[in-house]
Structures are given as structure tokens and as C-alpha cells.
Amino acid sequence: SVHERVDTFHDNDQKPVGHGRMLRKEDPRFLRGRGRYVDDIQLPGMLHLAILRSPVAHARIVGIDTSAAEASPGVAAVVTGAMLAEQGLAWMPTLSNDVQAVLATDKVRFQGQEVAFVVAENRYAARDALELIDVEYDVLDPVVDARRALAPDAPVIRDDLEGKTNNHCFDWETGDEAATAAVFARADVVVSQDIVYPRVHPAPMETCGAVADFDPVEGKLRLWSTTQAPHAHRTLYALVAGIPEHKIQVISPDIGGGFGNKVPIYPGYVCAIVASIVTGKPVKWMEDRSENLVSTGFARDYIMRGEIAATRDGRILAIRTNVLADHGAFNGTAAPVKYPAGFFGVFTGSYDLEAAYCKMTAVYTNKAPGGVAYACSFRITEAVYLVERIVDCLADELGMDPAELRLKNFIRPEQFPYTTKTGWVYDSGNYEPTMRLAMQMAGYDELRREQAAKRARGELMGIGIAFFTEAVGAGPRKDMDILGLGMADGCELRVHPTGKAVVRLSVQSQGQGHETTFAQIVAEEIGIPPADIDVVHGDTDNTPFGLGTYGSRSTPVSGAAAALVARKVRDKARIIASGMLEVSVADLEWEKGAFRVKGDPGRSVTIQDVAMRAHGAGDLPEGVEGGLEAQICYNPSNLTYPHGAYICVVDVDPGTAQVTVRRFVAVDDCGTRINPMIIEGQVHGGLTDGVGMALMEMIAFDEDGNCLGASLMDYLIPTALEVPDWETGFTVTPSPHHPIGAKGVGESATVGSPPAIVNAVVDALKPFGVRHADMPLTPSRVWDAMRGNPRPP
Ligand code: PCD
């Protein structure tokens, strides 16, 4: 069993999967500049596409004159929304059952929206010609503030939707309203707080792009694109463009970071496809940094009110929240259909509550569409931020230590599987040891003493705690689908005659190291060294169907599939081995890499021997076909629920209000660990994301709807200078339903770190009576908070 796993390698980690900290197989390629990204694809005769974007947030399109652009040197085609409309291609479905304009026809609805495109001999000719397109706009009032979107006099953004007379997008609720109200009514203490999670952007290092190559003779479309979900995208293209699915190959080569930004289908991909069909040539589209920031999927933008009810001695009874969700101009959220608010329902956190309730209203505004799960399993980041902030507000109200308050209210180990008051079934967890380890690593009591001494001297030091439970690994097909596609994952394993193997995955790595870790999973199960196992992914013609990589689902879903397909191959190998050794199957023992005859260990065959026999001459046991391969489709029975305890120490400069993250301790529990080195890398990256969101990042708009975060000069992302040396630790609570007990971890740190940092800053500002301040905690916001004058975000 996973609990008894023997660590065969010199690694003092607690029971990792064999080959634990092996170096990443993909790195020699990346370190030598030999990665192959979409923009590296060069095809003979390839043309280049550039997109004209709206300069205004809301306007009616009166007319578009493309004649000068068409006459510009090197231009092959200029295409407008009206031209796409003739083919029925001006609108496309989003991943949340809304529609989004590929190119605007009637109106533009956010600054940066796609209005027309030019295809030309090179990127420069295409961009130059954009300047020559003359668009006449009749500018309308924009709706920028979500709080005003439902005002009776607010201009209607989505008048393309039949009968739409307001900017309402959807309502959603979870939990029990009446039961929660009853608990609140009898609670000793109730604390409420307005909390904003501002709009942020995943900003991956590589922007989005595609190379489309439609071959009219074969009738086949090849599309290299920056996608985290090649199979899902292929099906959508087939449905929208009417090209049969087997005539579409989506290839997602090396990807320079995804972070949820590469889950949606963007108009640019569709434009590249149309352009290739129209011109009969391959067409490349690569957006620049500003285009990525202004037009592709943003994240968060939740305006929340949190309320918590407790007894005077610190027993948390209930949590209630009301959320106003800003979805921008088109609902581009990527979430399973039944979950319009993603997995926000886990806002009950890691605590054993009596009741919980959430009511949410989502609205349209004149801002870029999105709501993508930026390093977060569908809105879990917002949920964790809400609960961990409000729990700290309660600790403040009760005058209780925030660590002690959390320890007092954790779901206890014997309560798992634990069903929350909003219906989520946490598979396993053991929270107290994780919390205690973090406190021990941080030297918590000593830190509090240091803080008291500093406070006495007027120095501002803060200690912030966050404890999170995530729900990752979407998902069980009974509950979860994206546009009708179930979220199970396929996996195929072939062992070649010489005992080398290839495993084909339906998920797609964007830097996480799947070529290494999936080889490790298979190696562990079948005894072939990971170096001898090739991992193939990111190519729909060469991998089984599955829904892609996001929401930390690869390990929980495809990782399980890889383990099970390997076991299936091993079962067949066992039968062949029994024939080779002339004993019954029951008389064989499996020891990593070989079958041995029980009681006669000298008689054995290796998996490589079996592979050769499976493909070679000589008899196979009755009824066994040749070859050594298998395929499965794994439908998870539940999500996996990793957890973690984070402690952050900050210093705030009383003169400049600048926050420095001095220390950060992160203890993560993702069940069985496959590659501890990769996990640490994932955690380091996510913690850095957290510093960005907590202290620096925000996509803001002015009152006309101009995006103020359109470049990395204005949208600040953290560098090595803003982050401390991370201190990481771990506990291991395996998932009971995952074949190797592993849970996802890729997003844990992004989810858990913002509340830890904000809690630390608020703690530092306690002498000023501050209970809450909204992210990003830039010096000016901290300054305002110190002056009792928090600015509206
Ligand atoms: N692992 C291990 N162990 C365990 C778990 C895990 O080892 N237990 C590892 C694996 O194998 C891999 C990693 O780690 O490699 C991760 O995993 P996961 O958790 O499963 O996840 P995935 O699915 O793979 O991935 C995804 C994620 C996400 S989701 C995100 S954001 C991010 C992360 O991932 N992104 C990225 N990380 C990263 N990294 C990099 N480099 N890049 C990128 O981009 Mo979303 O929803 O999309 O928003």
C-alpha cells in the first residue's frame, strides 16, 4: 500500500515515490535554449497575423474602412467582424456557456477587444497595416465599477443577448440560508468585513499565440497553439468551425507558463484558423505583452462581504458571505458547467462548522472577459482568502491568538471523509500536525516575543497565518463537465520489445515537469527506470482524449491514470512471466522490475525479459495476445484535498509604509509526494505569485474603462528582490481514493500565501487599530491604512 512504500533511494523525504528528487528530464532542452515553443514554429510560406483592438471600452461600430490596409505592401487579407458574420463565425462559445465576439460586429465592449485582423508577409507588414484601418466608433458610456453595473440607469453591455435589459450575468448560492441565519442569531460574537480580491492577471512568461495550417487537399487543420487543454480545444473547434474532429490536430508544444491564462479559447486562435483557410497558407499569430494583459483571461475580481459567528471562547459556528462577481464583458470563466462560481463553495475552509451560506451575483462590465482560475482550482483562491481573512478578524475581535483560534476549530482527523456544510467531501486530512510543524519551523512563540519587543520600540513587525484546504483534481464525471465534456482522463502505455516504454497522457505540461514525474509514476509501478520511459503529451493525434491541465488536476486525475495503466500492463506481464517460468500466476512475486518464483527467488524474469517475450518468438500463455501495452480512461471518484499551513513574517517601514516579507514558512501536505524537488519548485513559484498579488499586482481601470495595467511597467510582478528565501516543509496524508495516494500541489502556494501575507501586514498595523486592508498592499495603501483612511479599491 502507499503507506508502506519503501524508499529505495537516498532521500530523507518521508516515503516519496521511488526516484524521488530526480532531476527534470526536460531541463537539458530548456537550459540549452532548445525548447520548442509556438513562436519557434516556422512553416514554408507562413503568413503573419495581427489584430486591431478597440481603443475604447464601450462603443457602437459605425463603419470600418479597410481599403488602405488592403493596399498596404505585403498584405494578403484584411478581415472584419462583418466578414466573419457572413460565415457564421463572428461569435464563439466561451467555456461557461456564454458567447464572445471573435471580431466585434455591433459594438466593442472592452478596451482591447478584437475588431479586425490583417494577414501579411511578415509581422511588421501586418502591424503597419493595422494603422491604416479606419474604424468609426460611436462612443457609449462604459460600466467600469461592478457595484454600479445593476443600477437602473446603467448602459446595457450585452444587448447582443436577446431580451437583455440589464448587466446581470448570473446568481448562485450554496449552503443553507435559514440554518445559517439561525446560528448567527444565537452566536455570542459576530464579525463582518468587506473584502475585495482585486482583478489580477496570470501574466505567463510566454504570451498566447498559434500557428494554423489548413491543408485544403487533405481537409486537415493543424494548429500549434498555446493551450493547456488541447483535446477540449479540438472538440470546440470542430463544433464551431464544422471541421470534422479527426481532421483537426491540436499541438501544444513547449509552453512558457500557463497559470490558467491558456485554458480559454481566444479570438486570436480562431482568427489564425480562419486566416489559414482564407489564404490557403500557414498563418502565425503571436500576441505581445500588452495584448496579453489587456485582452486575455484575468482572474479574481470578487467583491466580498464575509461574516463569521462564534462563541465567546472561540468556537467558530458559521460563515456567511455575499459576493459581487465582476465577469467583464463576456463570461469567459473556465469552470465545470454546474459550478458558475467555480469551487468557491469551499469557503468554509479547514474548520468544522455548524452552518454556512453564500449568495453571489455576477455582473457584466466593460472590462476584458475572463475569470480564469489563475493558479487556483476554480475560485478556491478567493474562497481561501475570504475565510482566512475573516478568521483573523475574529481572532482580533476575541483577542485570541490566530494560531490558537485555528487549532481550536480544525476538522479533526477522525472526521474524514468530512462533508462540509456546502456539500464538499474532503477525502483526508490531518491538520494539527501540519500547523504545529509550521509553528515549530517558524519559531512561533519566539516570533511573538520579538514582535512585542519591537512594538514597544515603535517598530512594525507582523506575523500572519493562513491554513488552507484545496479541492483539486476535477473531476468526477457525475458532477463535472466543461461544455458537456466529462473530466475523465485517458492514458496509454506501450512497452517496446527492448523494455523501453512510452506513456501518452491527455494532460499538458506548461513547465511543471510532467516528462519527469509521469515517468516516475510509471517507473514505480512497472520497474522500468524513468530514463527509459518517454512521456508524450500535447498532441491530440498522438495522445488519448482528456480535458487538460489546470486546477492542479494532472496528478489527481492523469497521475492516477498513469499508475493504473501501468498496473494493467504489469498484470499482463505477470501472466506472460508465469508462462516463461512455468509456474502459476499465484506463485509469482513482484519485486520492482522483476517477477520471482515464490520460495525460489533465483528463478526470475525481469520486466524487460517479459517485454521481449511479449513481442518475440516463442509461445505465450493460452489466450494472451502479443505486445505489452494498455490503455485506460480514469474517472476520479472524488477530488483530492491537499492542505497547508503558512506563516509569514513582515516588517513595515513606519516612514514609507513599504512592506518587506522577511520570512515565509510553508508546510504543504499533498499526500504521497512524487518528486519533492519539483514540489518545492511548485511551492516557491506559487509563493512568489502570492507576494505579487498581496503586495503589488492589480489590473485597474480608469473611469472611462482604460486598462491601467497594460504593461509590466504598470502591472508589477514580483522578482527575486521582493521575495525571501522560502522555508518549506511537508506532512504526508495520502488521498484514500488515489491509486498512489497523491494529491495535487501546483496551485497550493498561490492559494495559501496571499492571506498569510495580508494577515501579517494587518498584524503589523495593529497599533493603528487596523483590522483589514485590501490588496495589493502597496506603500500608498498601507500608508492610508495607517492613517485610518483606507481607499476604496
Ligand atoms: N507533484 C508531485 N507530487 C504530488 C503532486 C504533484 O511530485 N503529490 C508534481 C507533479 O508531478 C507535477 C507538479 O508537481 O509535476 C504539479 O502537479 P499538479 O498539482 O498535479 O498540477 P498540474 O495539473 O500538473 O499543473 C497545473 C498547475 C496549475 S493549475 C497552475 S495554474 C500552475 C502550476 O501547475 N501553472 C504552472 N504550476 C506551474 N508550474 C509551471 N512551471 N508553469 C505553470 O504554468 Mo491553473 O488552473 O492553470 O490556473
Automatic annotation (TrEMBL):
SMART domains registered for this protein in UniProt: Ald_Xan_dh_C
Composition bias type Basic and acidic residues, residue spans: 1-16
Transmembrane portions of the chain: none
Pfam families in the record: Ald_Xan_dh_C (PF01315), MoCoBD_1 (PF02738), MoCoBD_2 (PF20256)
UniProt region (Disordered), positions on chain: 1-20
Stretches assigned to the Aldehyde oxidase/xanthine dehydrogenase a/b hammerhead domain: 32-141
Stated name of the protein: Carbon monoxide dehydrogenase, large subunit apoprotein
Organism field: Micromonospora echinaurantiaca
